[in-house]
Write a structure and sequence with these properties.
Elements lengths: L8 H12 L28 E3 L4 E4 L9 E5 L2 E6 L13 E6 L4 E9 L10 E3 L6 E2 L5 E3 L5 E8 L3 E5 L6 H11 L5 E8 L5 E7 L8 E7 L6 H14 L4 H9 E6 L4 H5 L22 H17 L2 E11 L3 E5 L10 H12 L7 E4 L6 H9 L2 E8 L4 H20 L6
Parallel strand pairs: 4-6, 14-15, 14-16, 16-19, 17-18
Antiparallel strand pairs: 1-2, 2-5, 3-4, 5-11, 6-10, 7-8, 7-11, 9-10, 12-13, 13-15, 17-19
Length: 416
């Protein structure tokens, strides 16, 4: 028998009463597949400089670094990487620097992982930590069992950076927000602190008149390595902030609440997945045991209450092995349920040869996608970008997605 997931009328009415009574905390919900998100211990890497030889050094003393140990075997430099705790999703992030003191050296660097973990991210290289290129395939060898990767590198007297993805740390995100805040449509503020005391940033995108408008919520960086998802958020927002007639009309009716980095501790500590509490934040949307999830969930609810708005859509930007949209099951009793198919059809129609991968599901684990349903009865979608999706395509698709979202939300009857 087909199961139809619905938010009960009683639950919905209680949530309205709660908000009207002045209570601004996010309500809890018993998801069918609960996850224990109480704090667990983690192992922080030791921040240090490793002496490989009198002429060669490596270090992990920068935001986003991950390097647990260095050794040399038959002239091969081995960089050893392990996660912050276990069990954990297989997203083995690595990031470290190498340099030579007296002369350049060409060496093989082997990146190996803790037992049972496999290589995932193609190596990226930089000479300044800001601009990145992929390592040439002729210089890279991935083990047949993917337990390690070897890179042939010329190590300069200056520094070379090696990382799983281009490094976008918390400071980079804050700087990006501050730059966007030069736009009169952007109100940027810090809404709280992470477990490690780092800022949790927030941007409201509006024309200055927020009262009684419909609300779209955007989330990103719950999982530290998922940089391509953050690139998608950036392009998505840039499109909305263009001085266009479409954006103007959209912001006449809608407000955006943007939380661009929910896990700044995990990002800066070079974590594979978790926050400083050792937890996957995107499993903590039932009881908010972690500080970051509680801060953001409460702020969303409080802001919506303050402006007397109505959340109609939540988009959570992530990365995985391939581009995919995790969407709500079409039999869910939510507002704006038809948006999903109309949006994906619009994106498909604008990109020749592209067929969006849609993976719908009902309310299962306590992830943000389901939280938008249980908290607001709104449509929630996880917008996933592939690990290796080219940045140019990320930009193109995200701009199209932003335009499509605005047009469909403004006039849904025009779209199929």
């Amino acid at each position: 028998m087909k199961t139809i997931y619905k938010i009960s009328l009683l639950s919905f009415l209680l949530s309205i009463v709660t908000v009207d009574a002045g209570y601004s905390q996010a309500k809890t919900y018993d998801f069918p597949k609960p996850v224990d998100t109480t704090t667990r211990s983690i192992k922080l890497q030791e921040r240090r400089t490793f002496e490989i030889s009198p002429n060669l050094y490596a270090d992990n003393q920068f935001r986003g670094a991950r390097l647990n140990n260095v050794s040399v075997d038959n002239g091969i430099i081995e960089a050893y990487i392990e996660p912050e705790n276990a069990p954990i999703n297989a997203s083995p992030w690595y990031a470290f620097r190498l340099w030579s003191v007296d002369s350049t050296e060409t060496r093989t660097v082997k990146i190996s992982y803790a037992e049972d973990y496999k290589h995932r991210y193609w190596p990226k290289l930089s000479d300044n930590g800001d601009t990145w290129i992929e390592a040439d395939s002729s210089d890279v060898k991935v083990a047949e069992d993917t337990s390690y990767v070897e890179i042939r590198l010329t190590i300069p007297m200056d520094t070379i950076w090696i990382a799983a993805q281009p490094i976008v740390d918390s400071k980079d995100v804050y700087n990006w927000c501050e730059n966007l805040a030069k736009n009169r449509l952007v109100d940027y503020k810090i809404i709280g602190k992470s477990t490690g005391g780092r800022d949790i940033p927030f941007m409201m995108i509006s024309n200055g008149k927020e009262k009684k408008k419909k609300v779209v919520v955007l989330l990103s960086r719950q999982h530290p390595p998922e940089v391509t998802g953050f690139f998608a958020l950036q392009a998505f927002l840039d499109e909305i902030l263009k001085d266009s007639e479409l954006s103007k009309n959209f912001l006449d009716d809608y407000v955006l609440l943007v939380y661009p980095i929910l896990n700044p501790d995990g990002v800066d500590e070079g974590h594979w997945r978790h926050n400083l509490g050792g937890i996957d934040l995107n499993r903590d949307w039932a009881y908010y045991h972690q500080k970051e999830t509680r801060e953001v969930a409460d702020h969303i609810v409080e802001t919506v209450k303050k402006i007397k708005g109505k959340v109609v859509l939540g988009l959570d930007f992530h990365s995985t092995w391939y581009d995919v949209y995790y969407t709500p099951a079409r039999d869910l009793d939510i507002v704006n349920v038809d948006f999903t198919d109309k949006w994906l059809n619009y994106i498909k129609g604008k990109i020749p040869g592209y067929d969006p991968r849609d993976e719908p599901s009902g309310i299962t684990q306590p992830v943000s996608k389901g939280w938008f349903v249980t908290q607001f009865g709104a449509n929630g979608i996880t917008y996933e970008i592939g690990d290796s999706t080219p940045k140019e395509f990320i930009k193109e698709k995200s701009e199209i997605a932003a335009d499509g979202m605005m047009m469909i939300l403004l006039d849904p009857d025009k779209f199929k």
